């Protein structure tokens, strides 16, 4: 009797995880449709540079990854080549979304090549650390063996390491942005700077909150629940990164076509001291 009850409970848990993934994919597609006009206006027809490449990967590959992740949650393919392909695509999506944040952080730091090199090195180090930790350390909970999962529980729960390293990386980036904002741009009134900074804070807050919840779910909940937020995590990374990009472009357009000359565009964000001792930001060509 207890065995049949356990099977029914496991089925309900799996069903809940499937509903969560389908809901996340639906919300992602809805947001994509809402922001598609902004993409056509701000992205299409512009030259291909590193920023547009990173944006395109983050936006479109995330759609593919979300759909595949949702499909995998509905029809489990654990331990198959399909599962490993999804993991690879999802990792590329995370890297591209983090790439947009790196571009944003580097913009606040005046497009310094030294800062960019440090940010890229830090990102690569976190990727290596996440991969090594995932392969060397196993996470399991008492009772995991009672569930009928393929590959074992450690493979599934080890996804928490990716969330932890992503959270740490984004906290470091936001700390750098906050320090730069308070130290260098404290008295600067700029719509672009405010968008660059506050959009980033909102992005970091929600995505770190989701990652923290997802990490807790992966580590502490019964195995059937741990895939509940897989699609949501991939989708939100892309949604927030894309919205930051569009907001910056809209601010830049406002400044170039009707904004104040004392504003700044999305250029190097460098100060140009005037004789009266008031710093004014140079308005230069956008790099985004």
UniProtKB/TrEMBL annotation:
It comes from the Eukaryota. Keywords: Membrane, Transmembrane, Transmembrane helix. The chain crosses the membrane at residues 20-41, 81-103, 115-139, 200-219. Residues 19-64 form the DUF6533 domain. It holds the Pfam family DUF6533. InterPro entries: DUF6533 (IPR045340). This is Unplaced genomic scaffold scaffold_967, whole genome shotgun sequence.
